Amino acid sequence: MKRLLTLILLFNLFTASASATCTGEICIDVVADPSTHQIVITASKKGSTGNVISGTSVAPRPKRVIVKKTWVPWLPKPVVVPKSPSPKRTYVRKPKSKTVSSADLSDRITKLLPIGSIRRQPGNPVLVQVPVNFWTTAPTTFRTIVMVLDIPVTVELHPLFTWSYGDGDIFITPLTGEPYPLTLITHTYHRAGNYQAQLLITWSGTWTVGGVIAPISGGLIKQNISEGIEVIPAPTRFTD
Q1: Is the dihedral of CA 150, 216, 33, 44 positive or negative?
Q2: Could you write out the DSSP letters of every residue in 93-106?
Q3: CA dist 150 to 139, 210, 212, Å?
Q4: Could you give the percent of the chain with pLDDT greater than 70?
Q5: Can you tell me whether residue 128 is helix, strand or coil?
Q6: Would you call 157 exposed, middle or buried from its count of C-beta atoms within 10 A (0-12, 13-18, 19+)?
Q7: What is the Cα–Cα distance from 132 to 188, expressed in whole angstroms?
Q8: What is the DSSP letter of 35?
Q9: pLDDT tens per residue across span 49-105
Q10: Over the chain, what is the mean pLDDT?
Q11: Which residues lie below 8 Å from residue 9, measured CB to CB, with a gap of 6+?
């Protein structure tokens, strides 16, 4: 029994985290689109539209009224004269409003994440056995507030940087690096040649609406930057 209750609680927790957050009549969801490097904020609100249905009604025709007179034996029999029918009258009823099926109002906003570039010291060519200082111009955080159906939605993401220097070495850090003299990210090439340095930026984060914080679904947004590096042998001279 305890195991069953645990499974039910886990299922409810997973379902709640995967659904949109609703504030009153408005439901909001924030999804990452890795294919376009965008954050998609969607909102939907349910409202009702009233369609007016009008109608007319016709009054029934009045019946003929027959007036009878008393017959006296020494007088001729009375002639029955039908009363002329009243003119036809039409009654128009005022239209009444009738609520039909509700309509969905929605809004969709996309935000493109900024992408930086690779910077390094020194530039080409690079000498063997001389440390190279790397950094990127990508921001350390991305925070934006958008209005969706008059409701503020706060989106906040943080990057993770994966440096691949082209010679098999990989370095993962949340830091962007800094130019000299703050050498936070350095790499030394031990052989001459042409290398392709790559920087993978992986974005993840949360969004907030109405005091409720939820993770951004849809997967991680990844950005790739690359730059060619030429490494040449350093001139050496042996002395006694």
Answers
A1: negative
A2: PPPEEEE---EEEE
A3: 28, 12, 17
A4: 62
A5: coil
A6: buried
A7: 6
A8: T
A9: 333 323 333 334 545 555 555 555 655 666 656 666 666 665 555 544 333 233 346
A10: 74
A11: none
Q: Which residues of the chain have pLDDT under 50?
A: 1-19, 48-60, 62, 95-104
The CA–CA distances, whole Å, from 122 to 45, 133, 213 equal 55, 7, 43
122 in helix, strand or coil? coil
Distance (Å, whole) CA 190 – CA 169: 12
CA distance 107 to 148: 6
Q: What's the predicted TM-score (pTM) here?
A: 0.62
Per the CB < 8 A criterion, the answer to whether 127 and 231 are in contact is yes
**Cα gap 171→164, rounded to integer Å:** 7
Instruction: Tell me what pLDDT residue 1 has.
Output: 44
Residues 6+ apart with CB under 8 A from 223: 37, 113, 115, 138, 200, 201, 203
Return the CATH architecture of domain 114-232.
Answer: Sandwich (2.60)
